[in-house]
Amino acid sequence: MNTPFHIPEGNFRGHDRQNVWKLAPDPELTEVGPGTACGEYMRRFWMPVAMTDQIGDLPYRIRILGEDLVLFREKKEGRLGLTHLHCVHRNMSLEFGIVEEGGIRCSYHGWKYGLDGTVLETPCEPPASQVKKKTCLGAYPVIEYKGLAFAYLGPADTTPPFPVMDTFDEEGDDMLPSLIKSPCNWLQVMENAWDPFHVVYLHTLAVRSQFIDAFAEMPMIEFHEGRYGDFYTNVRRVGDIVWLRVHDHMMPSFTQNGAHFPVPDRQRYFGRCGLSRWVVPIDDTNTMVVTWRHFRDGDDPRGMTDKSKVGYGTTDFYGQGPDRSYEQRQRDPGDYDAWVSQGPKNIHARENLSFTDRGVAKVRRMLRNNIRSLAAGNPVEHPAAASSGILPTYAGDTMLRIPIQPGRDDAAVLKEISFKVADIFRASDDRSGAARKSFIQDELKKYEAGWA
Ligand code: FES
Ligand SMILES: [Fe+2]
Q: For the whole model, what pTM was predicted?
């Protein structure tokens, strides 16, 4: 039979590959609710759970690691409390509770709870009632710092010290908090920071320069181990400048990256991070990215940052949330569109990891090992427990004037420089503050001079 329709030719294999629709996510790395292996691991760390400017005089309902909770500021000293959402009398939600001095009171029958969940009063009970001694409300400790509320949701007897990085309190650094939610699993959001190659394509070549043109150059990436966490060097040559962009990573989900709008056209010695970032699971398919944006002189030579945009649900660099039309997101997708569109839970069995996914493979391996180690009864390693104070970190941009060396393969030169700079950074670990900074800067200058 003759037909006017031409059937396209080609090697069509959609039907052969229909098994992809049946593949499932990896529960070991993605399930975070109470009693799950990954959830239990993540509960062993302090995590930011809210921006404190969102906590007014009313109870503030939040969900963290699949637990419904209420955060409130008690009225005597302004301390923060974080408790399970439901009153343990008959389960009315404490989001409708009354915030008082030293605690919160349920508005149904008046049970009052202290910050640690102790039942303090049961006004409708007869005076001889012992019920308040028999139960308590689940509660977690909270620390407030620079506009963020951090909580520890793990067992009380393994509460770790609060990790304070060197980037949390630097002179001349204006730190602004931000919190943005994404409707997908936490791991795919976290992995974005272990995937430095997406900067070349998604942020630069795909549509336009969302940050700076120099990101179009494919970087050389080397992974390094530090005393308290991992870091990687992202190295690019821009004329005579060797630009090293360093990122920090601490398990389970803390990362710091370089400046957002660096200009690699001049020397810079140990410029510091543009962002300190935690990826915090709300539940298995909802996540929040909680950050401090850092603003310092010299980080943004072209004036592309905007402090007024940093806050709840928003920040000053492109593509971090759903704050654009669907058409704009399709025409110019950002990080949010990448990680959310991987699905509610990315299905690893459908992926084909390759050379540029070394970071992703590495972090999954580390996470799996750590989850299994805890499940086997081993203690969790905490950087802050191993240090005597403030933790040295490395993230930021360093730019050295090291021209192409006649007779030498430039890739080998860049690799050598990235390892040497990593060594210089690590050698500073026992110093702190201005002394550490000047040690690193002096060593970098000496090293650079050696190539002249
Ligand atoms: S349900 Fe809260 S006091 Fe009764
Ligand atoms: Fe990105």
A: 0.96
